[in-house]
Specification:
- The chain has ten helices and eleven strands.
- It has 300 residues and is α/β, with parallel strands linked by helices.
- It has a six-stranded parallel β-sheet. It has a five-stranded parallel β-sheet with strand order 2-1-3-4-5.
- Helix 1 packs across helix 10 and helix 4 crosses helix 6.
- It is elongated, with a radius of gyration of 21 Å.
- The chain starts with a strand and ends in a 15-residue tail after the last helix.
- The structure holds NADP nicotinamide-adenine-dinucleotide phosphate.
């Protein structure tokens, strides 16, 4: 079985994926884009992670494009992506669990003022803050898919009142008005790009916490910075940015009301993700139903 492996990997990352696939799908030969071009008629599926533009073209027997990432916004923006080949994204319970841990950490730290205490330590300030109960801190999770549902359940287990928002047409403004903490776990689509903007922040109760674990382009940065400056948003936890790595001069780096992570909320674990991808590749080759298919028209 010949498969294309195309991606822009960090040093050492490709070797890790190759080892994980050798264990999960030992019958497969993973070809580089150049190797795949040399035997284009034999390549049956593509495993991709930010593939080089054009690398999926000219493969007439391709039955599946399997993304190693959960978010497919960059992939869908590639005009050379073959339109007729089924596209699946990564859905891995191990990644959902990691995301839920990050979301829970952010909620606990925002609720109990742990980010403020970290700042106070830097300033040598001994200053206990008023303590609220978890059931007094409503949390809103934007997106109720794989990640959003898992995070919401984990946070609710700790006693927080949790609401969720999905694409069922329910109005966002009344949910925002009740939320002390919002967690963004939406996919980046034409509808959700720039959703976290001045109007969104104004609809929150004053001093709310904003946690963005999805994509940088969900946030209008200047409008978040203005909301932080006015105190409308009390603190932001940001894992994802318009440009990654976040450029050195960006105001988020030194901002006292911003806690940032280097796109580390939920990394894909090659050990479990290769098993998920292998099952889908085997299904594609056997003509069986595929899991985790992307609906290209809706963008996720
Ligand atoms: P998913 O299973 O596809 O869930 C998406 C959810 O968003 C669904 O509940 C969907 O509503 C909702 N949604 C989509 N468009 C909407 C809209 N216009 N209005 C309201 N709700 C909308 O996705 P997932 O696996 O949970 O992943 C979510 C995102 O997390 C990914 O796209 C990726 O960008 C991000 N991510 C980040 C990291 C990281 O390390 N920071 C890691 C992995 C993923 P319906 O239920 O009605 O369809």
């Amino acid at each position: 079985m010949k498969l294309l492996l195309s991606g822009s990997f960090d040093p050492g990352e490709e070797a890790e994926w190759r080892a994980a696939f050798a264990a999960a799908l030992p019958e497969a030969e993973l070809l580089s884009p150049a190797e795949a071009r040399a035997c284009a008629n034999e390549v049956q599926a593509a495993i991709v992670a930010n593939p080089a533009p054009g690398s999926l073209q000219g493969l007439p027997r391709l039955k599946l494009i399997q993304s190693l990432w959960a978010g497919v916004d960059r992939l869908l923006a590639d005009p050379t992506l073959p339109a007729e080949v089924p596209l699946a994204r990564m859905v891995d319970p191990a990644m959902n669990a990691a995301m839920a841990e990050t979301a829970l950490w952010a909620v606990l730290a925002l609720h109990r003022g742990f980010f403020t205490y970290a700042r106070q330590q830097q300033a040598g300030l001994w200053q206990p803050l008023p303590q609220r109960r978890a059931d007094e801190v409503p949390v809103l999770v934007l997106g109720q898919g794989q990640m959003g549902r898992t995070a919401a359940a984990r946070i609710a287990q700790q006693g927080y009142p949790v609401a969720g928002w999905r694409r069922d047409g329910s109005a966002l403004a009344p949910l925002l008005a009740r939320a002390q903490i919002i967690i963004n776990l939406l996919p980046l689509t034409a509808d959700t790009r720039g959703l976290l903007n001045a109007g969104f922040f104004a609809a929150l109760p004053r001093g709310a916490g904003v946690v963005n674990l999805a994509r940088g382009a969900h946030v209008v940065d200047e409008e978040l910075l203005a909301a932080l400056a006015s105190g409308q948003v009390g603190h932001a936890v940001l894992d994802v940015f318009h440009t990654e790595p976040l450029p050195a001069p960006h105001p988020y780096w030194q901002h006292p009301q911003v806690t940032l992570l280097p796109h580390a909320a939920a990394a894909t674990d090659p050990r479990s993700a290769a098993q998920v991808a292998a099952a889908n590749v085997r299904a594609a080759l056997a003509g069986q139903p595929l899991a985790n298919l992307v609906e290209r028209k809706r963008g996720y």
